[in-house]
Amino acid sequence: MARYPGLTLRVLASGPPAMGPGKAALISHIERTGSISGAARAMGMSYRRAWQLVEALNDSFDEPVVVTAIGGRRGGGAQVTAFGLELVKIYRRMEDRASAAITADLRWFARRQRKPARSGTSTR
Amino acid sequence: MARYPGLTLRVLASGPPAMGPGKAALISHIERTGSISGAARAMGMSYRRAWQLVEALNDSFDEPVVVTAIGGRRGGGAQVTAFGLELVKIYRRMEDRASAAITADLRWFARRQRKPARSGTSTR
DNA sequence: CGGCGCTATATTCAACTGGATATAACGAAA
DNA sequence: TTTCGTTATATCCAGTTGAATATAGCGCCG
Hints:
The structure is a homodimer.
Chain A: E1 7-12, E2 17-19, H1 21-33, H2 36-43, H3 47-60, E3 66-70, E4 76-80, H4 82-112
Antiparallel strand pairs in A: 1-2, 3-4
Helix pairs in contact in A: 1-2, 2-3
The first copy, chain A, binds a DNA duplex through residues 35-38, 46-49, 51-52, 68-78, 123-124.
């Protein structure tokens, strides 16, 4: 799920994150499957949660990220807007750039992280 | 608290984040106050939580980040190790670099984020 | 016109999280 | 030897989160 091991990038608005790895993945899955429920299934996520994320996305920006349709041939569906696609594209680019900017430091971290398997190390 | 508005950087190990803005701030406060409890107070954080974060930090790396002393003149205290100081320094550098690498994109986000005050916008 | 699949939404419940609180241990200093 | 502030830890409780479940509404298509 994490495209760049060791890095998590979150874009904040005022308050809760407007964009992060989870939402980016969700949008891509919606684009691919044509529905929120399909994306949720593909990601092993509850429909409720997926729907809430879509709602949060649409609330976060001027333009809608995902538009939905109720009823119809396939029961309805969801479609990623051009804006939504651009959103993901730019987010991915941010991941690329941020990752590239800190690869050296990430290696520093990786080098001194303790890897041992966890057992009863911490609490006493 | 967020040094770079719009950006949150988290460094992941295997599982929970090994380093993030909260831990970085905590370390700095420990360095300044000389104790975990002092840092917790300064940050409006419960001692329990602060102590847990310190424990997590020390468990995350080869070398200790914070060393503690029990009892004594001032009841004990905590000290940030040289490694801990380097850890923060490098983390801050990562923030700098990542931030610089995506400022243009962050502006793109800022430009189309919806700012309106929240009321009953979302749920219906 | 009935069924299907999906959006939309409410409700309930379990798990997790973190705060509040209490207490023990500790060791230097008064 | 008493006092003091801190580390270290357990216990309890409230708030939050998200999963599970249920249900309604919708519109095309057979």
